[in-house]
# Entry
Amino acid sequence: MAVTDEPLALTTGEDLVVDRPLGVFTRPQGGKGWRDWLSTVDHKKIGIMYGVAAMFFFVVGGIEALLIRLQLAAPDGQILSADVYNQVFTMHGVTMVFLFIMPLAAAFANYLIPLQIGARDVAFPRLNALSFWVWLSGAIFLNTSWIVGGGGADCGWFCYSPNSGLAFSPSHGVDFYALGLQIAGIASLVSAINLIVTCLNMRAPGMSLFRMPVLTWMLLVTQFLLLFAIPVITVALFLLMFDRLFDAQFFNPEAGADPLLWQHLFWIFGHPEVYIIILPAFGVVSEIIPTFSRKPIFGYSFMVFSGIAIGFMGWGVWAHHMFVSGIGPLSVWAFSMSTMFIAVPTGVKILNWLATMWGGKLRFTTAMLFAVGTVAMFTIGGLSGVTHALAPADTQQTDTYYIVAHFHYVIFGGGVLGLMGGLYFWWPKVFGFMLNETWGKVHFWTMLIGFNLTFGPMHVLGLQGMSRRIDTYSPGFGFAFWNLIATIGAFIIALSVVVFFLNVWKSRRDAPHLPAPGPDPWDARSLEWMIQSPAPEHNFDEVPIVESDDEWWHRKYGYDENKNVVRIATIEEATQKGDAVGVHLPAPSFWPLVVALGLPIIGYGLIFNLWLCVLGGALVGLGIYSWALEPVDDPDADHDHGHDDHDDDDDDDDGEGAEAEMADATAGAEEGAD
Ligand code: HEM
Ligand SMILES: [Cu+2]
# Structure
């Protein structure tokens, strides 16, 4: 299709110059309302969509967890059949890891990284939209296996072979697992590349790497882990797909293959995956604790380097998941040692958070309670993790409820509690109203008590010998009491989640009658708090010049001759007003969505009818070409075409204007730094 300079009516302009106060400017959207959300390329909106979708899947994964707990509440449970139980715990694990906690962290990364580094958007806004829509299409595709696949995948979230083969998993559940996670993997990979380029190339002048907030650093390390881990699991899933759909023999021992290959591939991805889950929460806690201790983070560079060290060392421990898989004593010894070493950088973080609070003026807001709760619960999970590193002990503990307790203390106690704290901390910046603190504290305490009642007893059950993944147990084993407590605890967690949603509803309803939170309700330290709440569409009126770490704090406070902290500017004086002219904003597009819709159709084609692959492929092709050939201007947008000087940088399809402007800014980043 020839590129004409006669703009098509369908799409929107590449790079739009705003020539009037932005207050009255609305991006030439693909439409209003839902069309705006479907075509947006704004990192903030994409962040919000990740967050809403992730919380939806938290509820789905939570319902699956309650079903598990109901089945195990008493001996000889009859609520779920053994086969359905296998599907429910498998999908619970897959949903909670890939469809809840990873996208929730992506919500924080998308919304906050550009704001924390002083940028107007991510490096490739349309690619960012593509990541979201591809992830969502993969998530929905995966769950349609309940409807059209004969049930969910049933071989556990790590789907060991040969259980995952057709002989033991004949329904299409595992096919949906293999294809759905490949689709979601594409989204993670594209998003990781986008956010790495954003952190390295889009920083405001003076924002050197070692002035970036700890959260942005932890999210950057997380993106590098995704960049290297996702290809490994993609290869494994690809081989599994070929074994199931095209009769290959990659994991079939009768054909001379070794099923341990799957375990190695899965855990070479799987262990870095646990850091992909926990590092964002560590970053969130590292923003909340200094703010409510009224002290800078203790040992900033140690915090950053321990995160980088965890990122590196996380690649050298995977076989601690295979101590009883017959990998031989030398490997067991080596991976036992490497696993112990990784406790060191993790310990550094815990000590630095405690040192930050030490001597601080502590304010126990809901966000701070969640942050402190995260440090405490993660430490418990970390300690049981160290006991797993001891191979002889792990031989007893592996595949029991002691393991289930351990990873819920680190993933839920560390990851979920941490990100929940982040929701309360940045809620006013994202939505322009505060969540009610009283309800917030009820949410925190019910979740913390429910959490410990659910997973605390599992340590005991595990040491008593209760295996994981059993759908029922006989009365004679003595597991009944603690299982009942665990089930009661699970329902208390569910209650706390209901309290959270009620708090959102109530706070939104009451917001018009309450004073607005303003740009900086917590008196915080980083750049996102120097702009209006909710963050304006263009982020910064003018790109900030950064002169120190904790730049925003240093614009409000200084030191007098006696080194006492004194205020040097009020928030009103120091804040950007949110009106700007002539800001380049990348324009929205529907084509990323079109490309994303083609992928699950290809998935259905590979499972049911290869003709569908042609349809899906055509949709992907149409989307990519139209996106690449998308004309520069939207005839309906009534900005004047006088801006000829912009035409030359409209030949790249991802907000070249904004990028060029930012590249200049970033070029100054290092200059300002020294
Ligand atoms: C909301 C409260 C939750 C409850 C009550 C709960 C309960 C459980 C239980 C009882 C199991 C063991 C099932 C078995 O072995 O038969 C399990 C497994 C699992 N859970 Fe949770 N969980 C919860 C939240 C989470 C969260 C937030 C995550 C991660 C973000 C998570 C990730 C997993 C994983 C990965 C498994 C392993 C599944 C497998 O064995 O394949 N859970 N959960
Ligand atoms: Cu591991």
